[in-house]
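Checklist before submission:
- one chain only
- standard amino acids only
- sequence pasted in full

Submission:
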Amino acid sequence: MGRILRRAQYQTIHGTSLTSTSPPAHTENTTCFRTAKTAHRAVIVGTRTLQAGNRGFTPLEKTPYKKGLTSLTGFTLIELIIVLFIIGLAASVVIVSVGRLHEKTVFNEEARKLFQTIKHAREVSLLERKNIEFKIKEDENKYWLDYGDGTTYNLHSVPQKFTITGEAVVFFPKGNSSGGLIKINNGKGREYTIEVDPVLGMPAIKRF
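Returned file contents:
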């Protein structure tokens, strides 16, 4: 856009003021030119501001780690040793607990079998109407039932870590017995005692 100025033409009349005979000049082009120039300056200022702002910006992926910051690269050797020690300690506790639980279960099962064998001897005596004897061999940790015909029934061997003590008990066809006391011990202070009533012949078990 260009600035167009037209020279005004005046008529000179002596003794009077000057009066223009030309048409008025047009100012639209001048106004548009100034507006465009101002807008261009604003664009330049904005561009410079954006460039100045970008100078202080560093992409995130290129930002180096500062000194003093912890790098999450993994565990240290000491941390691994501590973790392994804790795992080993927990495993040992679990193994010991499982071993004790297993031993306790086995001991309870042995006491139950002993009680059931004595109770079975009384039932057989009542059914078959003959004497049935419960026998123990302490040095071999064994017990069984003797039906009186030289035949051994319900022979059972107790594990060597347990001990069984007591005396032979005879059950009679009327339901009574010779009475007696039989004990089984796990060797660690835990014991079951089975007492046979001589009058009723009924066995009763107690834990100590």
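Reviewer check: The domain at 86-207 is CATH 3.55.40.10 (minor pseudopilin epsh fold).
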